[in-house]
Amino acid sequence: MATFKQKALRFLYPFTRIAAKIGKNGTVLNNESKTAPTVPFYEQKATLNNGKPIDFSAYSGKKVLIVNTASNCGYTGQYAELQKLHEKLGDKLAIIAFPANDFMEQEKSNDNEISQFCKVNYGVSFPIAKKGVVIKNEEQQPLYKWLTDSKANGWNNHQPDWNFSKYVIDEKGNLTNYFGPSISPLDDEFLEAVE
Q1: Catalytic residues
Q2: Is the pLDDT of residue 118 over 80?
Q3: N or C: which end of the chain has fewer CB within 10 A?
Q4: Domain containing 88 — which CATH number?
């Protein structure tokens, strides 16, 4: 069940997104030179919130969207948009949420509570990874080390600016785009990258 704060944040989400689009949260980066990774995406490791390993090689031939999430953020309303995108493009696009408590402690819940929150309030049916660290430090999850290290992914060093930052990997395992949190998963520019 959503708290009063979570309900208020959901209501304010459209205003939050529009207001923040002009700052760093509106950052968009593209792999314009189409540089391939030196370390394959399909060799990366992560764990789902139920403890099962994620086999990224299962996504070969499909685009993948990696997004760091939080339950108490002004962007939390994007869970509904991500679910809509999942329902529309599920055969072509795999979405995986990576909950993190890295930005103003906006995800204090445990993995079970996060899963329940997402299902009850947003009907989330796409995979949710085990809660972990997405920003650059010694505890950063291996996948996020790959996403934010140009020596591994081929071109990008940009770490998430805030919750709901989005990384797009193409059908061949190439990191193609980074979208800041104020870019909606339903914006035309974003849809062009994932469709």
Answers
A1: 73
A2: yes
A3: N
A4: 3.40.30.10
